[in-house]
Amino acid sequence: MDPANETDLRLVSEPGSGMTIEVAPHRCFACGVLDEHGLHLDLHVDGDRCWTELALPDRFQGWDGIAHGGIVSTILDEVMAWSLAATDNWGVTARMNVAFRKPVRLGRTIRAEGWMTKAGRRMIETSGRIVDAADGTVLATAEGTYVAADDERRRQLRARYRFRLVPASADGPAQGPAAAS
User: Which neighbouring-strand residues pair with 10?
Assistant: First the structure.
């Protein structure tokens, strides 16, 4: 994808889930494709759950060979926030609590998962975790509270990001600018 081409769409889906989230390119450090220094997370959704798998490169190091805690927190925040968007909710992080259980090793594949636990009119609660993808060891857990966007703000965000939930086709999700029409 050419980051300069604002008409390209970033596709976020879980194979077999029957749902694809389509969003336009943007500069979010975690999930955007336009931030050259960002994580460029490949996010997948299933109902009110979101997940991603990745191996963090050395540039995200804290202590020697270990991912910086801020990066671990960012990944957890992102999967918990996208668990809202997967059900067409939008919100901003009000508070987040992270428990670092074991070091997240650089270069080793991890799986981050986030899900909604309670949805109120204005506040949405979530949980998340990062596990070692190979053996399932829990590396970090989190709880988050998000302030839900009102209807008008949700409309603005959907328009800005050309956000759509669409069924995945048998041939895979639609791609390119035509998918946004």
Answer: 23
DSSP string, 12-25: EE-TTSS-EEEE--
Rounded Cα distance, 162 and 33, in Å? 15
Q: How far apart are CA 152 and CA 119, in angstroms?
A: 19
6, 14, 22, 71, 117 from 174: Cα distances, Å? 17, 14, 9, 31, 31
pLDDT category of residue 154 using cuts at 50, 70 and 90: confident
Please tell me the distance from the alpha carbon of residue 50 to that of residue 154, in angstroms, as a whole number.
Answer: 19
Q: What is the pLDDT of residues 43-82, one digit of tens each?
A: 888 777 888 899 999 999 999 999 999 999 999 999 999 8
Please report the domains of the chain, with CATH numbers, ordered by start residue. 10-168 (3.10.129.10)
> 10 Å Cβ neighbour count for 122?
12
Q: Given the DSSP bridges, would you call strands 91-100 and 109-119 parallel, antiparallel or unpaired?
A: unpaired
Residue 7's H or E segment, with its range, is: none
Would you say 81 and 114 are in contact if contact means Cβ atoms under 8 Å apart?
A: yes
φ/ψ of 73, rounded to 5, equals: -65, -40
